[in-house]
Specification:
mainly alpha, about 0% strand, globular
Length: about 300
């Protein structure tokens, strides 16, 4: 149950992160913002991996694993981030969250194709509830079908492909190794993109307010990738991405609370429907066990203090 529990925790962090980034990314050039944050995350994760002695794992890779790791870094840590934050700077946080939550639907197909994971009526029904609930939360009037929304959707598809490759790599590599390489190699791509676009000077022209948002986003992303890749290593791709979908309602609730949006009855029903769909797809008993695991871990930490 620890894998599902970690995925639920990753969803909490993801929901907060999407909301924060929808505000922070407009404070400076989106690509520069993404590069600086990802580079800092890579530094933190790389330092942790070095202290834990995980660096030796990279010397044991074969050619196929090396190519997959390069794919994870280039696509997941570079291209998808560039597309996502470029798109997110032109659309609402709610719309960005809606599009990213389609990750669960895309991942179902990939999980069946690449891992032969079994789908049943619980998963199908849960996925349908997630889609309907997501639409009710967003409201059709907020779907822009703009270039920005298409960029976010493309980034979501690329992340689904990257998570599939990452799960395969996690059979032989530790989560910290995969996550640190992903963020580090991806940062090199983003740096190259900045140079190519002639925006490298923007990296050195960061305002104090932007630094604050970058610092907050760095902390959230470091926590997210640590939880998420640990979850991928311990549970199925379908269950992990299903649990991650709960980040959507969290982002929406934060928008209602802090951006002055009223929580309409239709939105509230959508939130409940999406949450119910996730829990039904993952399993009620499994979800209860996951939250029990989280409670036990929290109590253990408190007792040690």
């Amino acid at each position: 149950m620890s894998g599902i529990a970690l995925a639920y925790l990753a969803a909490l962090v993801s929901g907060i992160s999407v909301f924060v980034n929808s505000i922070g990314v407009v404070s400076m050039d989106p690509l520069s913002y993404t590069f600086l944050r990802n580079l800092l995350v890579a530094g933190v994760l790389g330092s942790i991996g070095l202290m834990l002695g995980k660096i030796k794992e990279f010397s044991l890779l074969d050619a196929r694993q090396t190519l997959m790791l390069l794919f994870v870094g280039l696509v997941g840590g570079g291209i998808a981030f560039a597309l996502f934050f470029s798109g997110l700077s032109t659309i609402s946080g709610a719309e960005g969250s809606f599009l990213f939550r389609l990750l669960f639907i895309i991942s179902i197909v990939l999980a069946v194709v690449f891992f032969k994971e079994q789908i049943n009526w619980k998963i199908v029904t849960g996925a349908a509830a997630v889609i309907i609930g997501n639409f009710l939360i967003l409201g059709s009037s907020q779907l822009s079908f703009s270039v920005g929304s298409l960029l976010v959707l493309l980034a979501t598809i690329l992340w689904a492909l990257e998570y599939t490759a990452s799960k395969k790599l996690l059979q032989t590599l530790s989560p910290i190794s995969v996550a640190s390489f992903r963020m580090g190699f991806g940062s090199l791509f983003l740096l190259g993109l900045l140079v190519w676009q002639g925006k490298i000077s923007a990296v050195f022209e960061v305002s104090s307010s932007s630094l604050l948002w970058i610092a907050i986003s760095t902390g959230l992303l470091t926590l997210f990738v640590t939880l998420w890749y640990s979850a991928l290593a311990k549970t199925s791709l379908i269950y992990a991405t299903a649990a991650l979908t709960l980040g959507g309602p969290i982002s929406a609730l934060l928008s209602f609370l802090f951006v002055g949006k009223a929580l309409l009855p239709l939105h509230a029903f959508g939130l409940l429907l999406l949450a119910a769909g996730v829990i039904y797809a993952v399993g009620v008993a499994e979800t209860i066990s996951a939250f029990s695991w989280m409670k036990d871990k929290a109590l253990l930490v408190l007792r040690r203090r």
